[in-house]
């Protein structure tokens, strides 16, 4: 972290390879003025801050030492843990609202902590899904949501403009895309969608990094990197399975069971390598939820009862799997941080909560009598 405006100016000037004279020339000041700034013998005028930031290709916050990386990573981690806890409540609407309330307060308590800002914008996008089924949100129908939406826009501007972590920026663009879709502001949604990476080129950073790992550190390092890539790729294709199942369920209910069966078979094939399970388990539960509810709605009660018993067993068995995996001597060689966190959080209490959550979803979507048919 830089300790003064002067040292920040000097640091970023040198990063661009500019001399004091060259910087002074672009700002229409003397080189002596720049020298005074950098030695803390003087400060630039307020009117010079914005032009100075533009010349140095940084944010005005960076001049004052508030650039990305200066915030408290530990604070962000603690906030994220609490956020996950609130979001995972059985009552999803309550959890979504409380997440927004909590994260907004943490944004105010942790200015320019872009990871917390990103979590807040994502939480508002999640809240929009809980206004009405399938996103029937119209501006003005919910004052609470409008308030959070306005705050999300303010925070997202700062993340997109100043944050150097591409993951945070991309997550923010994705969340804003969803928010604008919900509000039927489709052109604005497209603007943010255009900022997101596409899978069409099939030229993924992770793929070439694995090759680089091989050339630098040998075949074993390359194989480990490629294994990690396979784990990471489980997340996007599983997410697409769940999104498609949701679309089928609300629009073509009768086609949902067959689609979910197909998707589940693919996931189960992937999980023949057990180290893929932490990246698939949550999606399995979601797919079963759509499959069971579709079966109940189409009169296939026996199939729904069978599937409910299957997914309940899968959830409980996964608790034992996680406990055993966490004792592996080669644990760190098999999983990244995301996989480790998933297994550490998957306790018996968490499994019971997930089963209860599934029951609530069946009751909400199909009715209490339908739930009784599968219990």
From TrEMBL:
Keywords: Coiled coil, DNA-binding. The keyword Nuclease does not apply. Residues 9-63 form the HTH cro/C1-type domain. Residues 341-368 form a coiled coil. It holds the Pfam family HTH_3. PANTHER family: HTH-TYPE TRANSCRIPTIONAL REGULATOR XRE, TRACRIPTIONAL REGULATORY PROTEIN-RELATED-RELATED. This is DNA-binding transcriptional regulator, XRE-family HTH domain. It comes from Treponema bryantii.
